[in-house]
Every structure is written in C-alpha cells, then in structure tokens.
Design goal:
This protein has 26 helices and no strands. It has 469 residues and is mainly α. The chain has 4 domains: 30 residues, no CATH class; 192 residues, no CATH class; 72 residues; 100 residues.
C-alpha cells in the first residue's frame, strides 16, 4: 500500500509534528493516546476468561431481552418513519417499523462498543460482539404476520453491519500487541469451548479479527492460538493468510494460499496478484479455473490484469461479461478484434432485450441495415431516439417517415409532459435529417399547433428550442 511505504520512510520528527498538530484539539485522540501509552509502558491487568464469559452473558441477556420486547404485530408507530413518501403496502409498513426498532437497539450497542475502542479494550469489545451475536441467534420474536422471512437472520445481518462499522473505527485506532493477544486468546478459547467444530461461528467474526491482526507485531503467536483452539485455516482463510504474510513466511503463505483460494475470493485475489507478478502461467491457469464459477465478480477483477497475449479466450470472456454488465461500449471495443463468430453472436443474442445498447454495438460495426430492421419494428417511445440516431444520415427518407409516424401516433394516443418531452426530442432529430429540412419545419409547426390545443406540448417545444419564446 502506498501509504504504508511512505509512512515507514518518513522521518520521525515529521511524524511527531503531525501527531502534535492533530492531537492538541482532538479529545478522542487524546484518550486513545493515553490508553495506548499506558498499555505500552506496562502490562495492564489482563481480563480473565471468567470475566470474558460474564460480559458475554450480560450482553446476551440484555440484548436478547431488548430484541424480544419488539412486538412485530404492534410496532412503535409513534416513532416510525416511512422509507419514502409514496404508497407503502401495509405488510411493508409493519416490517419497516419493526426493523427500525431493532436498528435502534443495535445503534445503542454501537455507542457502547466504540467506547471500548477508545479505551483500548479489544477483549471486552469482542466479548460484547459475541454476546450480541448469541442474542441475535437465540432471540425468540413472534412474527405471525410474516413481516420477516426469518427474524434471527435479519438480526444476524444487522450484527454483520454493526461489525463493519466497528471495523472501520478499529482500523483508525492504535492497539498494543498485549491487548491484541489477550483478545484473541479469550475469543479462541470461547470458540473452542462454546462452539467446538462450528466453522461458521468464528468465520462470522473474521473481519473484526482481521482489523485487530493488521496491527499485530506477533503474528506467529496468533497463528499458534488458532491451531491450539482447533480452528482450521480454511475456516478463517483471510485471517490465516494475513498472519502468515505479517510473519514474513512467504513460502508458508504461498502454500496456504494455494490450499485456501477456493474457499475465499479475497484469498484468491491475493494469490492471483502474486502469480501475476511471479508466475503468469499459474496466473492464467488459476484465472481460468475461477472465472466460470462467478463471471460477474471475476470480470471486474481480471480486467486490470488479463491481456490478449496472456490468454485471448479469457480476455474475450472477461470483456464480453463486462460489456453486458456495465453497458460500456469501450469494453466492446477492447474485445472486438479478438471475437470469433460464435462469441460475437453470443453477445448480440444476450443484448436482444436491450435494444438501445444493442444498437450502439451494431453501430460500432456499421451494421446499419440491422439497425434499420430494429427501428422498423420498434414502437417503444422510451428509447426511440437512441436507436434511430445512428442511421439518420444513412436512411434519411426512412428515418423522417418513421419519426413523423411516431409523433402522429403518440399524439393520437398519449398525453402528459413526459410524453411531450420525448416528442420534442424526436422533432430535434427530424430537423437534423439532410434533405428534409423543410419537411421537418412543417412537421414542427403542425405539431406545435396541434388541435386540440396542448399548452404543455408548446412549453416543451419552446424549451427544446424548436419554436421561439
């Protein structure tokens, strides 16, 4: 990372100047500094496993009670805020009102959790998060109206979001190694004693563990703790790879990455980056294996690495998928020189539902007759100007006749300002057609003077610059 490299190479007196400048008027930073300094200067009293368990149980009891106090059949309507001003189905109102009550409970938890970060108490923070997790798992909340597919799944989803917020704050905080070690030791012991063999429990907390592990200077000790707790690397793949890399054991990192990349996309991305630098044959082989499993996800990653020289077939697949996902003609321009007939026809076939973008692709290849065939059949006013624009100069007579027919038919059957905006756009196109300038002016005047009188249509035509003010 650029920041880490620059920071390490910056002289110490510059770092101290920066610290003095930002800490003088920031009370929270002052509290964090005091806690960090105390922890670095002396080993503070270590929380016992019994204390860890007690905090887990207290948090679980408190928040499980709070969750179970939410009445999904009669939510707190006085404090309910609709998600939007439009019509909301009754069942959806019940769901939203209940969700907002749950979210208020989680918000109360976040406030208490952030205090633990400031006070440099990651062991207590993990205990609180574990207690909240157990509460979300065990809460029994009746839902006779079926407002939720599964109340506990919703609570676990909210728990994940809470952890992500805490992770962002944790990454901005300094934490002493002794505190990180203590937190990991207590958490792993809890995993081993309360959830033995449960691969999903520890995995749920992987991102908060990563945020702590990123700060450690004792990666080897944390790996040993994992092994002693019976936690396999495949159940915490990102954490395992981070600790191996932090420990400086490149060979062990590579061996583990090769074993774990099928279990974790983040690990697979790291392995691919390594292969791209060190072994491009392995890069291509691994990319070929991964891409079919999730083309949408891997196309976005591989676009910055794959080239026709590395693998023409994979290059085409990546940019064809991006073309369909992002509707960016630049992706087609990259893939086009390497497309065979089958690949080209596949792209065209998958774009049949999206006429506007299909026409952009056809125009890139100057397939104007095919565009005309689409325009002949197309009566959808929403994208009409986009699909006819590429052939205005190629088929002027056809295009003017089609535009006039669209204007006449639309005025005969539809009303509304959005309709009139579209008509104004079509008339602007008609005015661009070489050889039909006088016909276009006649059509514009007739439309403006439509009977019965349509004041909103006149407004839109004036706003488009078709008629004087």
């Amino acid at each position: 990372m650029a920041f880490k490299n620059i920071y390490k190479s910056t002289r110490e007196h510059i770092k101290l100047q920066f610290l003095d400048a930002i800490i003088e008027h920031n009370e929270k930073l002052q509290q964090e500094f005091l806690a960090f300094a105390r922890n670095q200067e002396a080993e503070s009293e270590k929380q016992s496993y019994g204390s860890f368990l007690a905090l887990v149980n207290d948090v679980q009891t408190t928040y499980q009670g709070d969750f179970e106090s939410v009445d999904t059949e009669n939510p707190d309507w006085d404090n309910y805020t609709p998600s939007h001003s439009g019509y909301i189905e009754e069942w959806e109102q019940y769901q939203q009102a209940s969700e907002q009550e749950f979210q208020e409970i989680f918000q109360f938890f976040v406030s208490a959790a952030l205090d633990k970060i400031i006070l440099q108490r990651p062991d207590e923070l993990l205990a609180m998060l574990v207690g909240l997790y157990e509460a979300a798992m065990d809460a029994e909340v009746p839902d006779e109206f079926g407002s939720f597919d599964d109340v506990n799944e919703f609570l676990l989803s909210e728990h994940r979001q809470v952890m992500e917020r805490i992770v962002q704050k944790m990454r901005l905080s300094a934490v002493a190694d002794s505190k990180i070690n203590a937190a990991f030791e207590l958490f792993f012991r809890y995993c081993n004693e309360k959830h033995p063999g449960n691969q999903y429990f520890a995995k749920h907390f992987e991102h908060i563990l990563l945020a702590l592990a990123e700060k450690t200077g004792d990666a080897g000790r944390l790996l040993t703790m994992m092994e002693e707790a019976g936690l396999e690397q495949k159940n915490l793949p990102e954490l395992s790879l981070l600790l191996l890399k932090s420990g400086g054991n490149q060979e062990s990192w590579l061996q583990s990455a090769r074993k774990l990349y099928r279990h974790s996309e983040p690990v697979a991305r790291e392995l691919l980056k390594y292969y791209f630098e060190k072994d491009q044959v392995a890069f291509v082989k691994t990319a070929r294996e991964l891409f079919p499993a999730n083309p949408s996800a891997w196309a976005g990653f591989l676009k910055d690495y794959i080239t026709p020289e590395l693998d023409k077939s994979l290059f085409v697949k990546v940019f064809s998928k991006l073309l369909l996902l992002e509707e960016n003609i630049a992706h087609y321009q990259k893939a086009k020189p390497y497309l065979d007939k089958a690949a080209y026809n596949t792209i065209i076939g998958e774009l049949l539902w999206n006429k506007a973008f299909l026409v952009k692709v056809l125009a890139e290849d100057e397939r104007y007759a095919d565009i005309r065939a689409i325009v002949e059949k197309e009566n959808d006013r929403w994208h009409f100007e986009e699909i006819i624009a590429p052939i205005l100069k190629v088929y002027p007579d056809f295009c003017f006749a089609k535009i006039k027919a669209m204007v006449d038919n639309t005025l005969a059957n539809e009303r509304g300002r959005s309709v009139y905006k579209r008509i104004a756009k079509w008339l602007l196109l008609a005015r661009q057609i070489t050889g039909h300038e006088s016909n276009a002016m006649y059509l514009i005047k007739n439309t403006y003077n439509h009977k019965p009188n349509l004041p909103a249509l006149k407004d839109e035509m004036r706003d488009a610059g078709l008629m004087g003010g």
